[in-house]
Design a protein that fits this description.
CATH superfamily of the largest domain: Vaccinia Virus protein VP39
Number of domains: 2
Strand content: 15-25%
Distance between the termini: 79 Å
Helix content: 40-55%
Largest sheet: 8 strands, mixed
Shape: globular
Number of helices: 13
Amino acid sequence: MRSLLLVASAAALIAVPAAAMQQDHHANHKPHDPIAAAVAAPNRTAANTQRDAYRHPAETLAFFGVKPGDTVVELWPGGGWYTEILAPLSKAGGGTLYVAAPWDRGLVRIKEKQTADAATYGALKLAEFPSTGAGPKVPDGSADVVLTFRNVHNWRFGGKDNAAEAFRQIYAMLKPGGVLGVEEHRLNENDDPAKEEKSGYMKESSIIAFAEAAGFKLAGKGEINANPKDTKDYEKGVWTLPPTLREGDQDREKYLAIGESDRMTLKFVKPAS
């Protein structure tokens, strides 16, 4: 009888850790999130990751429905804040990433990234936008997603109103059913429209009107990048706030406490038919 009890006890000791291990395995197993992995990619610079709390890249890209295997176009990437995320996302999923800007002065900093880190950025396709024939264009009907972050005010008030033509070209480069994702500094709808010209802020209604005139349908509005602390009444416009801090040390702590601008996050779709 004693022998039977010893055998049973030993079996129980063996079974319990096995069950616990099985339970722990299931508890720790989470579906792979490719966007989160790209946000955490080691190629990202420290100065850029510090702004994630304001820019919400994972939530923003998920809202726009970006997938790793997509053909994605990033317009006017500047220093490549989002390129640092989109490049590893595209590479991991076998997708295609275009970065498009005025040729080729708008792509200088992206070319620097390609030279410094060919493993991450070597597959990027460079294109001219808006297309004038000076450089290669994004082929019509080729893109699943086109993204632009805080750029429409530049197209609208950059010395010449190029906004209507920009949206027309975006519409052409998308596949039927493709998505345009727009993030832009948001002016209050009841504010004087003249503020749009020099403040860097634009009204949601203005962006929607440009997109719909080009043929897009509004598919969603997100408050991912909203900031109710932003009063939008600064003499030097949105650039008063971080990261630019145009006032320098004057009221620096005040503007740091406000954080980055209040932004609209709009999703448009090119109709499938």
